[in-house]
Design goal:
Its EC number is 2.7.12.2. Helices cover 34% and strands 16% of the residues. It is α+β, with helices and mostly antiparallel strands.
């Protein structure tokens, strides 16, 4: 199942020169790999390796506990909260009433709980990030960079500010609260049924507009999946979790590394090629296929080697003729193995499948309400 694959990790990192045929031969020869893995593996996530001095990230911590990232100017302080690109995004611990009994989820960067801004009564999702190691600090930097780039886009989760706990030094980031959870939660409420195509068109349109906002700013999401797409009772759908998002220039300067959730990874990423804007598009196609059918495209595959073989060698997933042709074409445009032929966000935002959904947000809100 998809969940099983999400909880499996692989202990290899592709050499850049390894051929496609060589990798597939490796998979076929190692069908029993899963049985040899330690029992408590997390999802496929291999630590990024800096291979160029230009992308090496340097942190300093002064005696007061204030952390500074020399490359970006990010500052995290118990006194001033979060400062990025010269602007302060500050709340104090006293500004937010945190519901410690709630657990909204966990992302690439930390755990999330519900809270309320006391002065306004606005509900927020508070992400708590422990920055006690370099990897966590890098994810925080990526998260803040993504949130700043997302500001003003109605299809990306917004943020209010942040504060640092003087007791634990953990960083708390107050985010826009989406009251119905993720599209993974929506899928569960549908009990194996797909989202009706007319409603799926509105969902897809909002996803693509959010992704287009990121791609227009040369920012890759790199972990698009149902769990990282949120929805609310207003019929709004928004991308979230920028904890492993990366600036395109930085990404292209780095060696190919696995970061993200393997089950939504593009074929080129499985083969160790660089991230690109097109890699996000493949992930979108996988999500839309899953929402349309109620089933992950490779749900019957139980091992990562076989999954990778299907991604790299077998025909791409396609919807059958029972679905509207516009929806089938949209999925095919995303799930094209040849990166050069995979469509980009400007084209997909104008696709015939998502074009007619103007004004459909109210109907989508009604569907969400009926399932909540």
């Amino acid at each position: 199942s998809r969940q099983h694959l999400c909880n499996v990790a692989a202990g290899w990192l592709w050499q850049r020169h390894t051929t496609c045929a060589g990798k597939l031969a490796f998979f076929r020869a190692h069908g029993s790999l899963r049985a040899k893995m330690p029992p408590k593996m997390m999802k496929l996530e291999i630590e990024e390796i800096d291979n160029d001095a230009s992308v090496s990230m340097t942190w300093s911590i002064d005696p007061s506990g204030t952390m500074r990232h020399k490359g970006s100017g990010l500052k995290v302080s118990t006194d001033t909260g979060i400062t990025f690109e010269g602007q302060e995004y500050r709340l104090s611990p006293e500004d937010i009433e945190l519901d410690t009994s709630s657990h909204l989820g966990a992302g690439a960067c930390g755990v999330v709980q519900k809270g309320v801004i006391k002065k306004t009564g606005v509900a927020v999702a508070v992400k708590t990030v422990k920055v006690d190691d370099k990897g966590k600090r890098e994810q925080l930097l990526n998260e803040i960079r993504g949130l700043v780039q997302a500001e003003g886009c109605p299809h990306l989760v917004q943020w209010y500010a942040g504060f640092v706990s003087k007791r634990t030094n953990a960083v708390h980031v107050a985010l826009e609260f989406m009251d119905l959870g993720s599209l993974a939660d929506l899928k569960k409420r549908l009990h194996g049924q797909g989202v009706p195509p007319s409603h799926l068109a509105c969902i897809t349109s909002q996803i693509m507009k959010g992704l287009d906002h990121l791609h227009d700013r040369k920012l890759l999401h790199r972990d698009i999946k149902p769990e990282n797409i949120l929805h609310n009772r207003l019929g709004q759908v928004k991308l979230t979790d920028f904890g492993i998002a990366k600036d395109l220039d930085t990404t292209l300067a780095m060696a190919g590394t696995f970061v993200g959730t393997v089950t939504y990874m593009s074929p080129e990423r499985c083969l160790g090629q660089d991230y690109s804007l097109a890699s996000d598009i493949w992930s979108v196609g996988m999500v839309i296929y899953e929402l349309a059918t109620g089933k992950y495209p490779f749900a019957d595959i139980s091992t990562i080697p076989i999954l990778f073989e299907h991604l790299c060698d077998k025909p791409e997933p396609r919807l059958d003729a029972s679905f509207p042709p516009e929806l089938c074409d949209f999925v095919a445009a995303c799930l094209t193995r040849d990166v050069a032929k995979r469509q980009d966000t400007p084209h997909l935002c104008r696709h015939a499948f998502v074009g007619p959904c103007a004004g459909a947000q109210e109907e989508l809100a009604a569907l969400f309400a009926s399932l909540a």
